[in-house]
Each structure stands twice: as C-alpha cells, then as structure tokens.
Amino acid sequence: MSKNTSSNDVEVALGVAIDGWRSSGRALKEELRELGLLAATAGARLEEIEIQQRSKPDPSTMIGSGKVKELAEKSKDFDLVIFNENLKPAQHDKLREKFPVKVIDRTDLILDIFAQRAHTKDAKMQVELAQLQHNLPRKRGWGWALTNPGAGIGTRGPGETKMTIKERDLRERIHQLETRLQSIRDKRRTQRKNRRGIPEISLVGYTNSGKTTLLNKFSDSEEREEDMLFATLDTKTRRVHLEGDRYFLLTDTVGFIQRMPPKLKDAFIATLEELDRAHCLLHVIDITGARLQEKMNTVTELLEELGVAERPIFKVFNKIDLASEGLVERYQKQFPDAYFVSARTGEGLTKLKESIYRYLLENKLIERPDYAKNLPLREMISQ
Q1: Residue 85: other Cβ atoms inside 10 A
Q2: How far is it, in rounded angstroms, from Cα 114 to Cα 123?
Q3: In whole angstroms, what is the distance from residue 299 CA to residue 258 CA?
Q4: What's residue 71's pLDDT?
Q5: Does residue 237 have a pLDDT over 60?
Q6: Angle formed by the axes of helices 349-362 and 211-219, to 10°?
C-alpha cells in the first residue's frame, strides 16, 4: 500500500480508535462506520483502522508512546491519520510532532466538512469561528492552514480571506466574528418579530435523516437534497399551505450528530435559535439507520441543551419506502404515537399534515374559515 493511491485526489486515511474506554463492541463498530462516512464526506477514504484496547486514554498521546511509535511508522503509507476521539490540544501537538503525516481528530474532520459545505456568508462565519476557537489552544494555531489552500482535510477554512492569520491576531478575529454573528442574531430576532401571529414549526433530526426532502415535499420548494452527512448548514424557512389563506412556516435546521464539537455547537446557536420560536418540532428519524435509539437520544439531548425539549414534538419516522414491512411494524408498536412517512414518495404525509393542522387549531394558532366548519380535515388541507 502506498500513499495517494486514489485516482481522484481522495486522501487515504488511517483511522485510530480506542476500545474499552468510552465505547466497545457493537457500539464501536457503528461509530467507526460513521467515522468512515464522515471521512468520505470530507474527501478521504478510511483505508484501515487501528483499534487499541485501553481502559482510559493516555493523557499525553491518547494511545501511549509504544503505540505512537508503531503507528508513526505505519502512517508513512497514508496521507493522514484520523483519530475517532477528540484530542486535547496537548495530545494533538504531541502527536503532530511524532507522526510524519497530518494528524486530525473527529472534531477536525467535522469542521472540515462544514468548511466545505458553508456557502452563505453566515455559515462561513460560523464555521470559521468554530475552527479558530478549536485551534486557538494548539501551538500551531490556524495560520499555517490558510497558507496551504487545497492541502486536504484539516487545512481548509471557509473564511472571507485566505491570508495568514498569526496567533496574536486570532483573538481579534474571533472577537470580530462573534460581534458580526451577534448582529446577525439581532437581525433575525427582528425578522422573527415580524412573523408574529404566523404558526412556526421546525424540523430537527440526526444528519441525513431526510429533513430537506420533507421540507420540499410539504412546501413544493426545490431545496437541494443530497444523500450525505450535513447537506444542510443554513436555516431555510418555507411556507406550507393548508387551505384558503391558512398556512404555517416550516424551518429546516442543521443536522445533529453524536459528540458534535462543542465549539461548532456554540457557533451554530444563531442558526438553532430558530427553534426557540417554533410552536412545535418535527423530529425526523431515518427508520433505516443504525443505532436509531442512540441517534434519537442525541437529538433529544441537544434540544434539552437549547432549552426547547419541552416543546410539543412530533416523531416522524422517515424513509419507510426503504424499510422492510417488519421493521416498520416493529417501530409502530414501539412508538404508537409516531408518524411513519416517506418524504420521497409522499406516503404518510397527509396524516402528518392533518395532525399538524389539528394541533394548530386546538392551540388556537389558526382558525377554521366559516365555510369549512364542518368539513373533515382531509378535505380541507392541500395534498
């Protein structure tokens, strides 16, 4: 095996994971599968994974000096090394000194994906802030990355300029970004005030659960849909027509992921603040996904952190067109109050829309027009 064996500039990566400390067995297997998906999304191929048995991480290098020496030699055949854990600054600096290739952790990998996906000015600032805050404690800072554009995973940034940022300037840049993002928050609050009286519903869910497809189906919009992690970074709000002049606003939000980097979570608070205005939430769940309950718990935990977990939540199991009949029946029994839909084909969406309409009526967020007082909801709502 040799470096750069891919024909499309895909970086060849060596993964490193610990078994027996935080996760083990099946949980670790699924976690590493997700790491492979994250790597592929960022533009790398996780060629091989080294799993070390440890009861706790080594405080200096995460994996211990002996394993570092072994993997440093092995890494010469790869373009980069990806740690499944989030490395502390001192661990990261030490490993970079020992390895002859790039060393990144799970946070670096996710931030790199966000850097590639950030298209709007808001998203670019949010990602740049998260990258700066993540790299500030590290000895080499971030300036080195901006001087190597196109050097692969861990070196990309979505900032407005590609100038070298010296360490003494990092804090000033962070302050500038925080100030500008606060201004964006204030502007959004003003915009939300202008929506007063209009029912608002937000889509939440683990990344790649199909939220954008559901937004498109409900609102007849054409937002870009991609079968990949973190396809949506920016908040998108669309009008969903019910009947007559009745409608509600449906908002798509950034997908969640287990162990989402804290700095990234903080940076995207401006985006997720939209949830605070929502009258209710649609928790979209990929029924075909592995570790389904863990992913649901991840979403619930983040909603609790944001202070919106007590909001009415509709559980929406999506992608039933891709699931076996037995799998759908099993979850229907386990979650009798949930909704089972295919955002792609439209199956089950009428029932969901009826329930949303009923919720809005019962909570006096909208009123039925006089001519429709006695009509069944199914005849009232737009299909």
Answers
A1: 18
A2: 9
A3: 8
A4: 96
A5: yes
A6: 80
